[in-house]
Each structure stands twice: as C-alpha cells, then as structure tokens.
C-alpha cells in the first residue's frame, strides 16, 4: 500500500512546474509515501521546488511505471525527509524511460535509510532506462546515487554524482543476483562516459573524526585540551568525462558534440536505426540540448530509414525544436545527396541579411535562421510541414513572418504558449524568420524596376506610360502612378505649378522645381508628366519604401 500526493491516469502528457513551492506529503502509517505516481504517461518536470515526504515506510518523490519522465536542464528537484524510512528521488519500474538533465537532490536529515544497503537513493531503476546528463546529490545513511536491481535496466551516466553521509556511500549500487522482484532476471547494462562498466560503483569513504587521546595514568589533563583536528574529507573519485550519450526510444546513441562549431553529430548505426524504428510509433525524438549546439548532423541512411518507416523526426536543441512531419522527412530524404542531412536552428543578427531584407525588419523583432542541407545542396523547400518552437519573452501579441530574399514578409500560422513561453509556427521551407510583436504588415503593394514600364501591384503585373528613373541618387516616379498605388487623391494648380496629395487624412503639397527639405529632391516635369521623389512622398504619406540595389527595384508597402 502507498499514499500518493498525485495519481496520474495512464496516457497523459503533463508538464509539472515546481518553481517556488514546497510540497509536503505526510503518511502517518508505515506505508510508502509518494508525491507523484504514474503509469504510462509522459511527464516533464520544470522549476526548482522542494518535495518533502514523511512516511514510516519508503519516501519517494516520483514513482513511474512504463512512463517517460524528463527533468529539464536547469531544474532542481529537492527531496527531503526527517523520518526513518528509505528515501528515493525517482523510482523507475517496468520499462520506464527517465532522462535527467537537471539536478536531483536527496537529503535525509533524520535516520532515513538506517540499516539498509541503499537507503538514500537518487534514482532507483528496475527494468528501465535511465540517462543522467545532469547531476545527483545524495546525503544520508547508506547513500547511493543510482541503484539497479538484477533485471535488465540500462543506465547511462555522462553527468555527475556526489554522495555524502555517515555510513557506507557509493555512486552506483547494482544487485548481482536475482531477488524476489517481478520479471525475468538478467544483468543490467551500465555505461559510464560512453564505455561499458562492470563494477559496482566507486566507494566514497565516510568522513573520519579525530578523537582526543586520554591523559596517561597519574597525569593531570592540561588546563585546556587542544581542539582535535579532523582528518580531511576525502574527495570522491570523479567520473570520467564522456562523449554525450542520449536515449532515443530506449536506444543509447553516442553524440559527437563540437561546441566550437555548434554541431551535434549523431553516430547512428544500422542496428540503432532498426531498434529505434521498432520501438517508435510516430515520432523519433532526439534530445540534443547540449550547450552551444545549433546544428544536428544525421547520417542519410538513418534519415531515410525513418522516412521509409513513415516516422516523423523531432530535433531538440538549446535554441528550440525542429519537428519534421512524415512528408517533410520523406521529401528531404529524397532531395538529399548521398551524405548526411544537416539541420540548423540559430538566432541571427540583421547584419547577416541583405540590405533589402534588413529594411523589411520590424523594430523589436527576433531573427531565426533555419537551414536544411546535404553536402553542398541547400534544401530550401520540401513537401510536408516543419513545426518550429522557440522561446519568446517579448511584447504580446506576437506573430511570425518568413522574410523573403526580396524583402517581402509572409505571415505564418503561429501560436504562443504563455505557460512555457514558447512560440510555435509552421512552414514548408527553410530560410529567415522573424518573431515580433503583431503590427499591421501588408505584402508589398507595388514593385517598380528602374527604367521599366512594367510594375506589379498586389501581385498583378501591369504597365505604365512612363518608367521610374534615378536623378541625383533619388528615385523619381510618375505622380499619377504613385497616387494609384497608394490610393491617394490629388489636386493640380496649373497656374501655380503646385500639386497637393491627400491620403488617410494626411496631405502633401509640392511645387514643381522647388527643392524639398533635407536635400530630398524636387518635383519635376519630364515629357509633360509630373515626376515626384518616391521616398519623400511615400514616407510623408505613411507608406514605406524598400530598395533592392542588385535588382534596381523599389518596393512600396502600405
């Protein structure tokens, strides 16, 4: 029997934010005391709260059976008790998958764990997969970082474990013979720093305390007994620094992380791929939240294997998540060269864009560069859908635009989740994307090319009797044409050679030949047509002009 603070029904997908609270679970009798118990769900712990369990039996913060449990990076789970029973941070049973990127702190301030071989334990595993990238700190009687029974658990440690206390301590304890546990017995698999490990943990000696020597017979003790000097606390043997290893559908995959280049290269063998496909129903998830990683490299054989199996692929990096649906995976695999697939998600500065793209940016916007390539082939478009999720803490409401090479802005479907502070949007292409507060941004109302009679207006190509030209570095455009584009009206005083334009309550008066302020040019008459300086006129009336030097084109937005 046990008493649980929260029981979660099978099949849920839940995020638990423990930030800022202390959770007390009190069990009066000798039963198990458990804060969270679940079977078959997907649980994600965030925040840095404290869980205190009081029970006469075993104290457990999180108890999972056939579940997926993830403790995110930067998250600390504090589990403490002042009772007498055993203390567990996480207990993983019967096929659970546990990934810890944060910190698990297990503390027994009373007699917790007394008289047991694994009394204060960070993670207890039975027939489950445990991946520790973060850290475990266990303090109390008979402290153990990770304890496994003799029942085919897989434990992969690339993080750190520290155990302290006043009785026998070890960072790893594993049973060597079957006990009375459920399930067919079999040896555990322990991987430390990417290498198989056959030991039972590096013991951590208890801290010795010096005792003052009693005075000899017939001698008086000195007036003041010197304070005994305690022996130095031994430093636990550090774990080796390994190449990172991640769990993918229960399969351990080695990752080569080159932080100077920001890349994570997946070492996926054919056996890995076959096992992942067998264990995955719809989406293969790669948790690659290693510091500095912006780019993921996957062997083409693995990518195409997932495509042929009809699986989606999700890449999680520090900057966000790239989730390719099945059609996108198949399309990218079809286009790829006979080499690896390279996918990148990184924040960018305006300086990496062309001038016309820079002109299109919205103040306060954040830029993302998303690329997919194979060898020297840039895969800019693909069938299917790419869903992107990134953190956002700017002004609301927020929207996402694709920034075209011509400076055009395409509004994309997007949602903001205020609980986790993430923006999610969908696209069918790689490229430049801008996340910014919502404003009224229209597509280019018109596009003009210097010296050409043709122009496009809201996507429709038309022609005019006179072409724009450049005079003293100023683009000059026919007055009537710019009036049609903007939707402006105007009055003409032929005697005074004065034209007045009106748009949305604003007005602008120009005198032919009279210089405009700040050297902005002047209205002129050429071949009986009035030409006006485009930038001065449009911006004065509330529109925006973009210039593409390479194409010698002018874009007008309203």
Lay out the secondary structure.
Blueprint: E1 2-8, E2 13-17, E3 22-26, E4 32-39, E5 42-46, E6 50-54, E7 59-65, E8 68-71, E9 76-81, E10 87-93, E11 97-100, E12 103-108, E13 120-126, E14 129-132, E15 135-139, E16 143-148, E17 154-157, E18 160-164, E19 169-174, E20 189-192, E21 195-196, E22 203-204, E23 245-248, E24 251-258, E25 263-267, H1 270-279, E26 283-287, E27 295-298, H2 300-308, E28 312-317, E29 320-324, H3 326-335, E30 341-348, H4 355-360, E31 366-374, E32 377-378, E33 381-391, E34 398-403, E35 409-412, E36 414-417, E37 422-429, E38 431-437, E39 446-449, E40 454-457, E41 460-463, E42 469-471, E43 474-478, H5 479-486, E44 489-493, E45 498-503, E46 506-511, E47 524-526, E48 529-533, H6 534-540, E49 544-548, E50 553-557
Helix pairs in contact: 1-2, 2-3
Summarize the structure.
Helix content is 9%, strand content 47%. By secondary structure, it is mainly beta.
Describe the structure.
The chain is mostly beta strands and 558 residues long. It has 3 domains: 2-204; 245-437, Chondroitinase Ac, Chain A, domain 3 (Sandwich); 446-557, Copper Amine Oxidase, Chain A, domain 1 (2-Layer Sandwich), CATH 3.30.457.10. It contains 6 helices and 50 strands. The longest helix is centred in the middle third of the chain and has 10 residues, at 270-279.
């Amino acid at each position: 029997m046990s008493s649980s603070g929260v029981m979660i029904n099978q099949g849920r997908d839940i995020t638990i934010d423990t930030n800022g609270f202390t959770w007390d679970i009190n069990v009066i009798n000798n039963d198990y005391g458990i804060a969270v118990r679940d079977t078959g769900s997907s649980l994600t712990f965030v925040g840095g709260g404290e869980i205190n369990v009081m029970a006469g039996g075993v104290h457990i913060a999180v108890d999972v059976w056939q579940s997926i449990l993830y403790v995110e990076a930067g998250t600390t789970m504090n589990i403490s008790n002042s009772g007498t029973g055993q203390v567990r941070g996480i207990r993983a049973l019967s096929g659970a998958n546990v990934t810890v990127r944060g910190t698990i702190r297990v503390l027994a301030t009373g007699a917790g764990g007394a008289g047991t071989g694994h009394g204060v334990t960070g993670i207890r595993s039975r027939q489950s997969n445990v991946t520790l990238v973060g850290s475990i700190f266990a303090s109390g009687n008979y402290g153990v970082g990770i304890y496994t029974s003799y029942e085919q658990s897989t434990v992969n440690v690339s993080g750190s474990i520290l155990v302290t206390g006043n009785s026998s301590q070890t960072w790893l304890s594993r049973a060597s013979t079957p006990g009375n546990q459920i399930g067919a017995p079999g040896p555990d698999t322990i991987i430390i720093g990417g290498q198989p490990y056959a030991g039972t943990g590096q013991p951590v000696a208890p801290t010795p305390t010096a005792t003052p020597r009693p005075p000899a017979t017939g001698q008086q003790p000195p007036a003041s007994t010197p304070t005994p000097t305690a022996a130095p606390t031994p430093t636990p043997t550090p774990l080796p620094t390994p190449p990172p290893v991640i769990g993918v559908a229960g399969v351990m995959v080695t990752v080569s992380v080159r932080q100077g280049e920001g890349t994570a290269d997946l070492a996926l063998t054919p056996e890995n791929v076959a096992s992942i496909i067998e264990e995955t129903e719809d989406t293969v998830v790669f948790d690659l939240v290693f510091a500095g990683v912006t780019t993921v490299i996957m062997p083409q054989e693995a990518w195409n294997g997932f495509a042929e199996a009809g699986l989606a692929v999700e890449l999680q990096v520090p900057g966000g998540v790239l989730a390719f649906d099945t059609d996108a995976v198949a399309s990218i695999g079809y286009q790829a060269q006979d080499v690896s697939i390279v996918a990148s998600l990184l924040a960018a500065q305006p300086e990496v864009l062309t001038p016309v793209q820079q002109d299109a940016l919205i103040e306060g916007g954040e830029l993302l560069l998303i690329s997919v390539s194979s060898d020297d082939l840039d895969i800019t478009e693909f069938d299917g859908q790419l869903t992107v999720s990134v953190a956002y803490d700017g002004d609301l409401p927020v929207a996402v635009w694709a920034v075209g090479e011509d400076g055009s802005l395409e509004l994309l479907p997007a949602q903001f989740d205020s609980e986790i502070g993430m923006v999610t949007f969908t696209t069918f292409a790689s490229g430049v994307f801008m996340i910014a507060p919502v404003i009224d941004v229209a597509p280019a109302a018109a596009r003009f090319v210097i010296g050409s009679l043709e122009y496009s207006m809201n996507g429709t190509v038309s022609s005019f009797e006179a072409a724009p030209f450049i005079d003293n570095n100023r683009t000059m455009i026919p007055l009537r044409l710019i009036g049609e584009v903007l939707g402006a009206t105007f009055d003409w005083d032929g005697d005074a050679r004065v034209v007045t334009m009106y748009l949305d309550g604003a007005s602008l008066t120009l005198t032919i030949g009279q210089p405009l302020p700040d050297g902005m040019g002047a209205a002129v008459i050429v071949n009986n047509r009035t030409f006006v300086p485009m930038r001065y006129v449009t911006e004065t009336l509330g529109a925006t002009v973009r210039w593409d030097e390479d194409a010698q084109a002018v874009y007008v937005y309203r």
